[in-house]
């Protein structure tokens, strides 16, 4: 019996261990991992990894939630699936709103924990899908029509897609040409009767997005036409007319020219009915035609094309010439007026009568300089009024102005005539007021100084009886000091002398002869009546000693 028991035990060990379903769900049903979302146009693809491959009959379900929602919503097409990815669309989704997803595993009544995928903004994450392309072969050209990506994702940006084309000859394996085209455009300068293949992708630059390339499309260009199309279409400006010119190899044919708005190239629809005949360019014998500028209003971009005609035969249309009328417009010089206002020069610049229709699209530039200098200064602004407050008074300044296109500053008119002007003396009110005030106050100050000197001298004689005042006061009362200020060089100080009758004859000292002819005179200046002396001098001399002079 033991041998049998041993064999049985061996079988149990080698075989798969039995685990109850409840225990398997509890310990082995784990949540998915590494959830990722891929978006192409409006199509979402949610992918994830399962964590345990050995558990059978496991399904997966996913929910989504936006920042505008409070609850999770079941994701349509992603409930109880056995695969590890699902594709769906959310037609009512706000593509600029945050969105997040969650995924879980299920088996019977058991479920794993949710695996949360980080939130994102769909518009920023989405890729541009491959466009649909239609080709029409022409002689040495292929007309390409591109259907832009559609759907809720690109509703706000679809008009702004550009398209990158990679084109090559079918006989060559080298992709040798990259072009940027409009939704409906023509690829020129190809070889006739040659098969070309191409692929296209859409591009968007705000934000920067590169789409997925389309499948490869091929077309064969046609054989040479009897009448080749015109080439090298150009536009010149002469006076108030446009001159449309082109090159052509044959003679004795007529030409026709048309125009349309260039923005129509953005439409994927056929816009051939939008072409309009250019007046004066219906049946042209030469290789140019002239038409007035009024035919093509300003500030708009146009497309022009030309074809040749010979009886019932017509050529293909030429390569379209993109033409911006604003860049071709001739701007007449503006009107400049300069005048003095207060302490500054003021200039007004306006359009001439020939350019009044351009007024809203012009800015102005003034160049000015001192008449004696070659150094120029420049001011550019959108308004018509210019002020120059920091100019030198009584200096002649010269001015000239020109007009420039607001959106094309490199396109400008010729300069106006030069106008020279200066701040006139009569307008220098502040300077003249200051000079007048100084001239009026200076004499008053001098008179006040003289009166103050007299008054101070009188006060000194009362309060300082000493014959000689202190040196500091004497310096202030100096006659010479005052005379240097008040008296002109032609004025001189003179002394008045007169005889004092009945004057007492002062005896001479012994040894000195006295005569009757000795006369005594008193001399006084017109400025003062006496002299000062020190107190320590001999009192034997009288004060009259200083007042008498001997005539001899």
Overview of this structure, please?
The protein has 552 residues and is mainly beta. The chain folds into four domains: 21-125, Sandwich (Immunoglobulin-like), CATH 2.60.40; 132-220, Immunoglobulins (Immunoglobulin-like, Sandwich), CATH 2.60.40.10; 231-328, Sandwich (Immunoglobulin-like); 335-429, Immunoglobulin-like (Sandwich). Helix content is 14%, strand content 36%. The protein contains seven helices and 34 strands. The strands form nine sheets. Strands 3, 4, 6, 7 and 8 form a five-stranded antiparallel sheet that branches. Strands 11, 12, 14, 15 and 16 form a five-stranded antiparallel sheet that branches.
Please tag this protein with its features:
single chain, 552 residues, mainly beta, Immunoglobulin-like, 4 domains, 5-stranded antiparallel β-sheet, 7 helices, 14% helix, 36% strand, disordered N terminus, disordered C terminus
Distance between the termini: 187 Å
Number of helices: 7
Cα Rg: 54 Å
Report helical residue fraction.
10-25%
What would you say about this model in short?
This protein is mainly beta and 552 residues long. Strands 3, 4, 6, 7 and 8 form a 5-stranded antiparallel sheet that branches. Strands 11, 12, 14, 15 and 16 form a 5-stranded antiparallel sheet that branches. Strands 19, 20, 22, 23 and 24 form a 5-stranded antiparallel sheet that branches.
Topology:
Layout (H helix, E strand, L loop, with lengths): L1 H13 L6 H8 L4 E8 L2 E7 L9 E8 L6 E2 L10 E4 L10 E9 L2 E2 L3 E6 L1 H4 L6 E7 L2 E7 L14 E8 L7 E5 L2 E4 L7 E11 L2 E3 L6 E4 L10 E8 L2 E7 L6 E8 L14 E2 L10 E5 L8 E10 L2 E2 L6 E4 H4 L6 E7 L2 E7 L11 E9 L6 E5 L3 E4 L8 E9 L13 E3 L7 H35 L7 H6 L2 H8 L8 E5 L20 E6 L23 E2 L2
Antiparallel strand pairs: 1-2, 2-5, 3-4, 3-6, 6-7, 6-8, 9-10, 10-13, 11-12, 11-14, 14-15, 14-16, 17-18, 18-21, 19-20, 19-22, 22-23, 22-24, 25-26, 26-29, 27-28, 27-30, 30-31, 32-33, 33-34
């Amino acid at each position: 019996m033991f041998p049998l028991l041993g064999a049985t035990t061996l079988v149990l060990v080698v075989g798969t261990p039995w685990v109850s379903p409840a225990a398997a769900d509890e310990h082995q049903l784990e949540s998915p991992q590494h959830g990722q979302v891929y978006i192409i146009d409006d199509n979402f693809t949610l992918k994830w990894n399962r964590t345990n491959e050995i558990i059978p009959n496991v399904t997966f379900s996913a929910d989504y939630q936006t920042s505008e929602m409070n609850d999770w919503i079941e994701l349509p097409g992603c409930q109880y699936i056995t695969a590890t990815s699902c594709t769906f669309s959310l037609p009512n989704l706000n593509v600029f709103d945050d969105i997040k997803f969650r995924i879980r595993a299920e088996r019977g009544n058991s479920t794993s924990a949710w695996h949360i995928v980080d939130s994102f903004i769909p518009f920023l994450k989405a890729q541009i899908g491959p466009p649909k392309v239609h080709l029409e072969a022409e002689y040495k050209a292929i007309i390409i029509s591109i259907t832009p990506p559609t759907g809720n994702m690109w509703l706000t940006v679809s008009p702004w897609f550009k398209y990158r084309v990679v084109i090559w000859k079918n006989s060559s394996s080298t992709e040798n040409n990259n072009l940027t085209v409009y939704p409906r455009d023509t690829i020129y300068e190809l070889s006739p009767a040659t098969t070309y293949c191409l692929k296209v992708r859409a591009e968007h630059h705000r934000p920067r997005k590169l789409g997925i390339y389309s499948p490869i499309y091929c077309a064969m260009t046609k054989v040479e036409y009897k009448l080749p199309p015109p080439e090298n279409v150009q536009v010149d400006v002469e006076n108030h007319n446009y001159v449309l010119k082109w090159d052509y190899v044959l003679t004795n044919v007529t030409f026709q020219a048309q125009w349309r708005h260039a923005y129509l190239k953005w439409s994927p629809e056929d816009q051939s009915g939008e072409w309009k005949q250019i007046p004066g360019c219906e049946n042209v014998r030469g290789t140019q035609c002239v038409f007035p500028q009024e035919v093509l209003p300003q500030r708009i971009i146009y497309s022009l094309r030309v074809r040749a005609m010979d009886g019932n035969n017509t050529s293909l249309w030429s390569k379209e010439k993109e033409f911006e009328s604003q860049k071709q417009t001739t701007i007449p010089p503006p009107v400049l007026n300069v005048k003095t206002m207060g302490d500054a020069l003021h200039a007004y610049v306006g359009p001439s009568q020939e350019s009044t229709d351009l007024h809203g699209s012009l800015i102005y530039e003034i160049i000015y300089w001192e008449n004696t200098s070659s150094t120029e200064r420049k001011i550019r602004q959108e308004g018509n009024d210019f002020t120059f407050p920091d100019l030198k008074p009584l200096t002649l300044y010269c001015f000239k102005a020109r007009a420039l296109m607001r959106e094309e500053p490199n396109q400008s008119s010729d300069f106006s005539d030069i106008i020279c002007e200066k701040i006139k003396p009569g307008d220098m009110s502040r300077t003249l007021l200051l000079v007048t005030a100084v001239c009026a106050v200076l004499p008053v100050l001098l008179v006040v100084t003289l009166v103050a000197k007299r008054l101070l001298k009188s006060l000194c004689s009362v309060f300082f009886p000493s014959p000689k005042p202190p040196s500091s006061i004497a310096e202030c009362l100096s006659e010479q000091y005052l005379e240097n200020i008040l008296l002109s060089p032609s004025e001189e100080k003179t002394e008045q002398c007169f005889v004092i009758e009945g004057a007492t004859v002062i005896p001479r000292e012994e040894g000195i002869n006295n005569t009757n002819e000795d006369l005594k005179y008193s001399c006084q200046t017109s400025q003062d009546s006496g002299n000062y002396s020190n107190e320590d001098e001999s009192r034997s001399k009288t004060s009259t000693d200083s007042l008498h002079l001997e005539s001899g």
